[in-house]
Design a protein that fits this description.
- Helices cover 48% and strands 13% of the residues.
- α1 packs across α8, α3 runs parallel beside α4 and α4 packs parallel to α5.
- The protein has 267 residues and is α/β, with parallel strands linked by helices.
Amino acid sequence: MNENMNGSFAVVTGASSGIGLELAKQFAEHGFDLMIVADSGKIMEAANALRSYNVSVWEIQADLAKPDGVEKVYADIETIGRPVDAIALNAGVGAGGDFVRETRLEDDLNVIDLNVRSTVHLAKLVLKDMVQQGRGRVLFTSSIASTMPGTLNAVYNASKAFVQSFAQAIRNELKDTGVTVTALMPGPTETNFFHRAGMEDTKVGVAEKDDPAEVAKTGFEALMAGDDHVIAGAFKNKVQATLAHVLPDTVTAEMHRKQGEPAGRSD
């Protein structure tokens, strides 16, 4: 894709590393000025790297798992005073382990607060402006995890099922507004996700993963094309998503368990 969007303005959340940072690079490569958001101080390093693309970059450190963090981001968008041409709602986190016996309630609720509540909150604010201006592009980072029960990562998969359904529903609601909505569905990707979720020693954690730069490129191209969703990464991700639609949940839940178990465990 060679289309240049000089003068356009995009917002990317969860942009200090991983898929979010690579999405920000895609926007910068195509001439978008950027607001990038993360809860980590690494957002400053990301901003400095993105300025090498000769675009304007505003970095915001905010905890989107808290309502005040979302309101801060939106207030900063208003302060900049530019219409948002595109937004990638990418911030997310997991909490691996047995829901009853291993994960902490505060971690499970944080997954819901960040992946679900903050996504709805920021989308509500930004999409109203997009509809009023009659144009805009929205990318939700969903997951192939949205297609199956997440044994040993139960709250995360449920949160992504919400995001996937939410994205497709509002896409239909907005079909005559000039605003498009796209869901990006990666498989396991080489990011900090597995470390933060406490899943580095699981079978999926130690397995080969997709390149976040390739995942982001796929997502960006789908966004610019106005596609409803795209499954990114290895071909096996498409197979897995297809199987999830035809196999019973009891079967896919057991399949997911095998990926979420410790890598040294034998069946």
